[in-house]
Design brief:
Layout (H helix, E strand, L loop, with lengths): L5 H8 L2 H19 L21 H15 L7 H4 L3 H12 L14 H19 L2
Length: 131
């Protein structure tokens, strides 16, 4: 499932140097919504969202919203495996949407994989322009 969602479009349109910060703010907003926090409340990036009050049902709802917003399937246990917003954003940038963070993504990446992902993004943009 790969589709150009508003989140992905916004990330794509944002300079590479600012994408992680934008993704982090989008993810924080989802957790604040689920945890019933106000805009003025600070969501700690390195504290488990389960310690902050996220329930199992809330985790399922959040996973489903993140799947919709990112246009990518997410493993049902991924929030448990990445229990803080900081861990989650690291995971999203390296494993879920690495094509949008290729210059900033840590670790080795096969050049042909990066080229295919870039081609897919370019093809998606061209399809949208000519539809």
């Amino acid at each position: 499932m790969t589709s150009r969602t508003p989140w992905l479009q916004e990330l794509f349109d944002t300079p590479l140097s600012e994408r992680r910060t934008l993704l982090e703010s989008l993810v924080v907003a989802e957790f604040k919504r689920e945890l019933m926090m106000g805009e003025e409340d600070v969501l700690p990036l390195r504290v488990s969202y389960f310690e902050l009050g996220l329930t199992s049902l809330g985790a399922v709802d959040t996973r489903q919203r993140l799947e919709r917003e990112l246009g990518r399937p997410l493993d049902s246990a991924f929030l448990f495996n990445h229990p803080t917003v900081g861990d989650l954003v690291d995971f999203l940038t390296t494993e879920v949407v690495p094509e949008l963070f290729s210059a900033a993504a840590p670790g080795p990446k096969a050049p042909q994989d990066a080229e295919v992902s870039t081609k897919d993004l370019v093809n998606d943009v061209l399809k949208e322009l000519y539809q």
